[in-house]
Design goal:
- Chain A: It is a multi-pass membrane protein.
- Chain A: Pfam families: ATP-synt_A.
- Chain A: Keywords: ATP synthesis, Cell membrane, CF(0), Hydrogen ion transport, Ion transport, Membrane, Transmembrane, Transmembrane helix, Transport.
- The complex is a heterodimer of chains A (244) and B (171).
- With 244 residues, chain A is mainly alpha-helical.
- Chain A has a domain of 168 residues.
- Chain A is 69% helix and 7% strand.
- Chain A contains eight helices and four strands, in the order ββααααββαααα.
- Chain A has a two-stranded antiparallel ribbon with strand order 1-2.
- In chain A, a hairpin with a 7-residue loop joins strand 3 and strand 4.
- The longest helix of chain A is centred in the last third of the chain and has 41 residues.
- The N terminus of chain B is likely disordered.
- Classes of the chains: A mainly alpha (244), B mainly alpha (171).
- Chains A and B meet through strand 2, helix 1, helix 2, helix 4 and helix 5 of A and helix 1 of B.
Chain lengths: 244, 171
Amino acid sequence: MEHGNPMWTIDVFGLPITFNLSTALMIVVSSLIVFLIAFFMTRNLAVKPTGKSQVLMEVLMNFVKGIISGNMAWKQGGRFHFLALTLILYIFVSNMLGLPFAFVAPNDDHDLWWKSPTADPSVTLTLASLMIVLTHYYGIKMRGTKAYLKSYVQPVWFMAPFKFIEEFTYNLTLGLRLYGNIYAGEILLALLIMVMASGAIGFIGGFIPMMIWQGFSIYIGAIQAFIFVMLSMVYLSHKVSDDH
Amino acid sequence: MEFLILGATDTVPAAIGNSLIQLLTFLILLGALSYFVWKPLKKVMDEREQLIHSEIDDAEQRRMEAVKLKEENEAVLRETQAEISEMMDNAKQQAKKEQEAIIHDANTRANQMMETAKADIEREKEKAIRDINDQVADISVLIAEKMISKEINQKDQKDLVARYLQEAGGK
């Protein structure tokens, strides 16, 4: 099932910059959902919590804190707490958005408007790049340029090319793992929808696999959000901790 | 990017555009969430942690105070009990002494009274004997008067009888 993408191009000083409007829309939508959920769950904060929402958010906070402190000392990792929290919520909500329904515009290209923003490689690679860039930034900031450069020639000098290439493969694997999982999930969902739309037999035959796959996709979405944050913190700790 | 990644329909300019939007949105989201959600939440959690810490310290301190107070109380109690038993002993001894004194007093007085009574009895007895002697003399005179029917000087008679009686008592 081929979907088109609604594109919109502007010229910035002669350079054409094209925006995929559906991706942009979904990025904004999931950001808004994340913000609104988190915002309304943390009104009426109290030292002695009265509602479930605060407890839930605190559980999330402690969960992410556990991810970070599993990789590095909290003294160093504490500064990444908010980043990791935002990241895991954003990716999780993004992964979930494509599951319940899709919206395809009734034009010739079948423009797909509603999908997971993480089913777009440019989105996941951007997030991955941001994390990798941050590892280098904090590596230099917290350990100094000398220790940072020295880490490339350790344990032996001829490891340097591999270590250099590794930084790019980290970026690619981090971004593409998330993209691949979510995109494949949406493809299969679309195929199942086609099966169910084909007729009565198709509907009956496709209903159970559809439900199973949606449930599995929820699991995949949660696991991929966790893995993304986990690996980001692992890479950060490689650059930030002294013992590596 | 189509040549690089399966299923991606974006071109390179589109990838740049998406990246820009994603980066900008994520940074804004990060800032907004940090300011509106994570910071207040972290503050509350830190406050609770501090509260628990201070409560634990407080409890520890109170426990120590309680132990100290208990020891003090026990010491006071022991002291008081010692004092009480001492007072009881004193009182017992005092009572015993008084008891003995009273008994002794009573004995003395009883003895005295008996002595006096004996002396009285003795005196009364002597007096009675004397009276009886006198009366016996008188009666003897009367009897003798009647028996011999002869009047004699009463005084001589009396002397005579007294002499007889004395002689009789002397035997």
